[in-house]
Amino acid sequence: MIEVQDLTKRYGRHLAVDRVSFKVAQGEVVGFLGPNGAGKSTTMNILTGYLSATDGEVFIDDTNILEEPERVKQRIGYLPETPPLYPEMTVREYLRFVCRIKQVPKNEIDDRIEQGLHKVGIVEVYNRLVGNLSKGYRQRVGLAQALMGNPDILVLDEPTSGLDPKQIIEIRDLIRDLGSDHTVILSSHILPEVNEICKRVMIINEGRIAKDGDLATITNDLADASQVVVTARADEQATRDALKGVVGITRVDLMQSAEKDATEVLVLSEKNSDVRAEIASAFASKSVPLIGLRVKNATLEEIFLQLTSGVQEVAS
Amino acid sequence: MSTIKDLLTNSKVKYGGYAAIITFAIIAAVVVLNLLIQQLGWQIDMTDNNVYTLSEQTRDILNDLEEDVTIFVLARRNEEDPQIMEALDRYEQASNRISIEVVDAEQNPAFVAQYDPEGEGLRNGSVIVATSDNYRSIQGIDLFSIDRRNPQAPQVLGLNVERRITNALIFVASGRTPVIYQTTGHGEIDLTSGGAFGRLGEQFQNANFELRTLNLAQAPQVPDDGSIIAIVRPRTDISPLEAEKLAAFLAGGGKGFFSLDIAVGELPNLASVLEAYGIGIPAALLVEPDRNFNNGQPIELWPELAQNPITDPLAEADYRVLTPVPRPVLELPTKPRNVTIEPLLVSSTESFYRTDLDIPTPDLTADDFPGPHPVAISAVESEFTTSEEVTRLVVVGDTDFISLVDQINGNLDFLMNSFGWLEDQEEQLSIRPKTTIQFQMQTTGTQKLIFGGLFVIVIPLGILVAGLVIWLRRRHL
Amino acid sequence: MIAIMTREFRTYFQTPAGYIFAGLFLLVSGFFFAFGNLLNDSSYYTSFLQSILFLYLFAVPLLTMRLLSEERKQKTDQLLLTSPITVTQIVVGKFLAAFGVFLITLLVTILYAVVVAIFGDLAVSQTVGAYVGFALLGASFISIGVLISAVAENQVTSAFFTFFALLFIWFLNLVKSVAPTDPISSTIFAAALVLGIAAFFYANTRSWIAGGAVAVVGAIAIVLLHLFAAEIYIGLIQNVLDWFSLLERFDSFGLGLIEIEEVVFYLSFTAIFLFVTVRLIEKRRWA
Fold this sequence. Notes:
The complex is a heterotrimer. By secondary structure, chain A is of the alpha/beta class.
């Protein structure tokens, strides 16, 4: 359905997107994962026709977006990083305008808006001024906007950024729901979000696709160690000593402790292992007071730390 | 090989650096297109009387120009009168032989002196129409038509550019001034007395005619430098001797204008001269019962304009000629074959002429001669063999129309066109001053206050308040 | 295009912008009419339109400042450019909206003409001609504002630069009367023009050949003209400035004369500015 070939975008000397190629099949829900400035937004902007690529091509169902931009754009709904809203319009006026520029037939506009309002849950702010809405509502109005043209492809750039937890959950549910009958590409820098919504993830860093595949495989690949944070009311030496006997530990790194008179260390163990029970009993047997023990999930930033420190390894 | 279309649709070309070049090329093409359209000089003249459209006559003169003519506008740079420049531009556009130059008289006194040998003072604002060996200067004030009815406050009515310039063109192109000899001794009126303040005299001057008087009885003959002899409203018939001189003058290629009325009655001697050209002037009154062709009275006629070079421009301008109390001018069956007679003004089919003025009814009787009849006719005599034109005559069976030239445009044009035609300057004709400017409004103090308040306070404030209300109402949506 | 135009047009009247524009325009023009015509009992209406020409300096920036700059700032251009409409439709729609607001405001001033017609003789044809010219001139100025709003970062810079661009046009009108008319200055002017175009070609193609070719062709043209049509070099600067002068071309409309070349010039001027606006937006997407 979507095919991207050697997409490159150059801003002066800076390479924002570097020879990116991928395909997305109909009905897939794909997550772009990467830190800020990795090229996610640029890629999406090119996909939706907002920017032109320096090189490379985008095909939607074998149609080049440069050749028939109007036809292709009609099939894509796009929610950019900042929702494209006119603060001086009411939600109603805004959506009506969006319908008109998306070439929605006149007699279908009312129905389309009605459905959209219910879908994203903004019925109650229908007659309010966009500029007076809260961030969460604005995001939803932006999402409603993307749905107005009844597109079969949705491109959502950071759809949950800036929302409170309850709103995040609602939006995620909504996107999951939309995924059942749309091809969705969304971007995020939060791993769990992608984890929750997407089956397939592309990790983008420095303008390139670092990893492409389903999420479990990727995290597995990337996290080459399990991590546990251990806090003990003891000095560093005692803590290290206490950990010495535990089988499976590969490395112990000192961390900055938040608590006074306590030592906090990061314990790395073999992949897919859980060494918490062993650690607890080791501390107990050595009578070192253990005051904290928790699994540390690999955040995207950490994965990227790993990725960027071991680019060769990942790239190979 | 890439085709043009490939070139244009290629994304590199479309968005890359070459796009700028293509943009440039398109702009250049539009500029060229503009220059081409400029050459066409198409325009829509919105003014009521087509101030900026050259008359047919002027166009003919321009087409006939055989030498280059420069129109010098004396003005400081950028201080030219836009109306006059605009009107002059039409000449430049219409003919390759015309060029317009702006000269600052203050900075080029030597140049001006060339055209002002008598040092009469040719200042900025004036216009000089010049060929290489002939010129005519026009004072700036003469380029406007001015209402002098109130001598204390003359008012500018409009533009007089075309008439002045076209006549100057005729003058410089031909290089001579035709003379009109007005006969005296029979109670004739002087043409210069027609119209208020001698306006008619001015008209003749504008039209490059020189008016002189001639006492036929005393003069040994009509001078042969005189192009036209005019007998206007005689009160008595000419003598047989005068008739002889007149006939000799006409036979020698002279031209004649005759304006006669019923008051003078029979004119046997003059009639005998005109008879030789097939023209009859019965002492009769023309009666016009058709209300479409009279002025309320059956003897005040708005005759129909026949088709001929003299009246065609009037018909074009939708002018008519008022001839109060006319007598008929007829084409005689005895007309020689080498004379062509064309009616100029004709009465309607309902009209008739009556020789017996004692008949008491205004209606047609058995003694009357049913119409239509000409009120004025023109006659041209040509050589039998070469068919070269020799003599031209205009005979008008009315004299009062001359005194109405101020009130009725058609009358003025008819008179001037007749002389123009006689002088074979059909083009010269009725290019009339064109009204462009009206200045005055009349409002009372209260009205000034009301409308001033409305426009300065109520409307702007109303809009601003409306804006404020809408803004406040929407702000809290 | 109609959707863009309608939205823009309604925005003018749903925010204070449109009312401020119309209100201030009519305030100043009403003032000029009251003091220029009404108080003096002068029915010379075209002189009134001439006298408020300067209003464009302030009115146009007010009207066009937010058109495209605000889209970019609010990032709503992402919505427009990813919708199935062309950039041309966007730009023309915006232009038409601004022009529409301007026309409506101008229509109100016809009330003044009605007052003149009631209390005096209105030269109808001249008035109609002058209005046509006034509107066409307005369209040209608005197209300049549209272009500037497309490149400006925000409303303020947009208004600022539009004001100065228009001021520059007024300034040119003054300058041209003191511009040198001698052949040498004219030749220098022509050479500078050729060099400018050559530099433009080089800058855009990065090819010395293209730039050089333009320079050579231009130089040959200058020499040939000197040899065969030397009169063109007398007052060349003034003639070129005159030709491009928007204000100068308005004059003939005030005389009641609609010259097709002037109409075409104003329309082409507007079209070219909108066209360049479209190209600039396209170019930015490419950059």
